[in-house]
Design goal:
Helix content: 25-40%
Number of strands: 3
Number of helices: 3
Order of helices and strands: EHHEEH
Largest sheet: 3 strands, antiparallel
Radius of gyration: 13 Å
Shape: globular
Strand content: 15-25%
Distance between the termini: 35 Å
Length: 69
Amino acid sequence: MRRRYISIAEAADYLQISTRTVRRLISDGELNGYRIGQSGRLIRVDINEIDEQLMRPINEPPRRRKKRT
């Protein structure tokens, strides 16, 4: 499957959440963020991973979150 990278803002629009929440999902390890470019400042998210990891059926039990330290 071909990877399709989108920006954090586009991921937030896709999930209908804030960019801050997308960044928190990345830092908590619930979503993978990829640094792009020579400087490594651009962070992109694979939209296929969003569909696989975050979009789940309603009747599926919730995943446990990692505790923040």
